[in-house]
Amino acid sequence: MSQVKTDLQASGFELIETHISWVFLAESEVFKVKRPVNFGFLDFTTIDARRQACESEVRLNRRLAPDVYLGVVPVTVDEDGMHAVDGEGRIVDWAVHMRRLSDEDRGDTLLTKGSLSPERIDDLADHVAEFHAHAKCDAETAKHGEVSTIRQNVVENFAQTRDAIGEYLTPEQAREIEAWQLGILADAPRFNARIKSKRVRDGHGDLRLEHVYFEPDGSIAIIDCIEFNDRFRFGDVCADIAFLSMDLAWHGRVDLAERFLARYARATHDYGLYSVVDFYESYRAFVRGKIASFLAADPETSAATRDRAKREARRYFMLSLAYERPPLLSPRLVAVGGMIASGKSRTAGFLGELLAAPVVSSDRTRKHLMGVAPEASLPGGAWSGAYSPSASDAVYRELWLAASTVLASGRPVVIDASFRSAATRAAARALAARQGVPFTMVECVAPRDLLLERLAKREARGTHESDARTDLLDEFEARFEPIDELPQSEHVRLDTSAPAEENRRRLEALFET
User: Fold this and answer.
1) Which of 53, 361, 409, 463 has the highest Cβ tally under 10 A?
2) Contact (CB, 8 A) for 42 and 20
3) Predicted TM-score of the model (pTM)
């Protein structure tokens, strides 16, 4: 097979080597040939196995990059012994044929150039959320969320790096990672809850920045999913997104990592991911360290590739160790409340960005519990149907559960709700006290005429996460209990009729850490 590599390079292809593939780059095309390797978790030592892997790669990757994967083509050898892609002669191997994407549009390139904006991170989170929403979720995939299956993957990682890990970590550090990951897996209920909530699906399996492309037409293409072993592609959706959040952290952008997690949690109403995300980030970092160590030990790769792989392996293994520690964030609970149309959601969104915190919204939670889209209208009038006292109690219980899960992970959380009663405010404050974190109530206020104007614009638009309309304002005002029970240190009144930048500066000063 080394002759295949030599001949194709001689034909003018640029070569990129990975631990399992040779990737040959032409001006507008890419051909990927599987290396004849056996790592235990994959076996490409036969031509038939490599062909099947190529076919699976095309089929599975068309889910997230439908116009990138063009098909499977043969690698041939002619009478002179020269190899070619889709040429004349005897078929000796197979290659995945792809449209070449621009390196300038790749996630890691954009990050290095400072062009991977928060807005692009939001778009990516929404894109992955949509993919997961339609991904296979059944009894077969559910098995891969069971602790026994996850433990198999984890133990395999440690076994496959046992001989090499000493080059990258001290024995104490290696034992610490192993003990921590296996210790988390001893808590089976947290993983069973993920299965029960249908969060175990057929995902991507290798969601990293270098596989994400933001194309000029505004679309997002994600390539190179795991095709060779269902066990590494089936799993908790959090295992998928944790790969990307870990990758962002590895590149020094913890802020974008946390924003990605928060946006995904909002899009999917999956705040439970915070119960397992640190585990999966540590697991993913160890996997990348393992793969880099394989490449570093491969005598067929160039010296430069091996040296780079050694450096990367050390850094990944250290990152895996770091996830045992609490995140480098300041956990706190911020409740954002006020009258309808007072600017709560906009304020909560800004605070989420400022604190790198997920925002848990009562409007979105209510729609989620009712099984409808966030901007769909719910039946029932004021204080009835979907807005009855019992329904609202259920919404707040869900808010407390989501916020508690986030806080328990060592992260801040923002709750966006009316908090019109002293009882709901007391419950939020008590939750913060139980978690041992600071509590702040941000009350959004605005002149009544402005509230009516905003509500009228909402009605004219037709769709909105909130179902509140102008005819509800009088009754809502009558039922809103003034916020006079909180100490000044925990209560902030924010006039949203003031210029947005002025309010942003005020909030930045209040929550500066």
Assistant:
1) 361
2) yes
3) 0.91
